Amino acid sequence: MIAFEWAEPETLKQAVALLDPDDPAVRPIAGGTALMLMMKAGVFTPSRLVSLGKIEPRYSQIRVDADGSLRIGAMASLSELEQSAEVVSRFAVMKRALRTLSNVRVRNVARVGGALAHGDPHMDLPPLLAALGARVSVVGPKGTREIDVEALYLGYYETTLEKNELIAEAVVPPLNGARAAYMKVTSRSADDWPALNIGVRLETQGRDRIREARIVISAATEKVTRLNETEALLRGATADDATLKRAGDRAASEVSFLSDAHGSGAYKKELLRVYLARAIREALS
Hints:
Blueprint: E1 5-7, H1 12-18, E2 26-29, H2 35-40, E3 48-51, E4 62-64, E5 70-73, H3 78-83, H4 85-90, H5 92-98, H6 104-109, H7 112-117, H8 125-131, E6 135-140, E7 143-148, E8 153-155, E9 158-159, E10 166-172, E11 179-185, E12 196-205, E13 209-218, E14 225-226, H9 228-234, H10 241-254, H11 265-284
Parallel strand pairs: 1-3, 2-3
Antiparallel strand pairs: 4-5, 5-10, 6-7, 6-10, 8-9, 11-12, 12-13, 13-14
Helix pairs in contact: 9-10, 10-11
């Protein structure tokens, strides 16, 4: 491995100052579960890694605001998120999703901020949080700004983050009676990379009438993608078999599908047709 500089700032502000927007070989590192694999494969050769392991402890905290919003520090591990009492009591869908998000060894090391910033469309956390309407707080040399998670991604491994910006925390609004479901479809083991991720958040009237829908997919597409046309079709509709079939057809025609090692575009298109209905039924149940 080629030698590189290792920096260990003690504050988030210091970490931002050590990043170089003009040098793509300078990267931040949190858990390093993805970055180290890229380095071992020779895909990425750093000149400097800026470790976030010693920054302020508050960026590792998970807490609930007075309005019920869940605040997740970017340096909280995926295991800490999975085991958080606040998550268990308020967002059961998140706990269920995290159980198959890679294996427990990775979840113990990987950090929430890294999982969101990496930009790989196969990651579970971005479409899940996007479906829940989450946003991230981003810190850079010009100050702090907020980005909706669904707007964080531009394309395959591309995000709207500047090279000298870091995610400080993610904020998930309260469900306030809404129902949510998340499904991950894999062609191998349950904790493997998915062929399709789908997150659903529904506001309902009665048992099965949908007042508002929020549907986000990934893995089948080159980035986290919200299905706006499908949401419009479902708005005000009763979730019967005919409606869900129309929604599946609309979803399948709304996006372009990514062919990769986890399935062809045609295969993923059929997965979306089937699993959209399953995810909505799971949310309603």
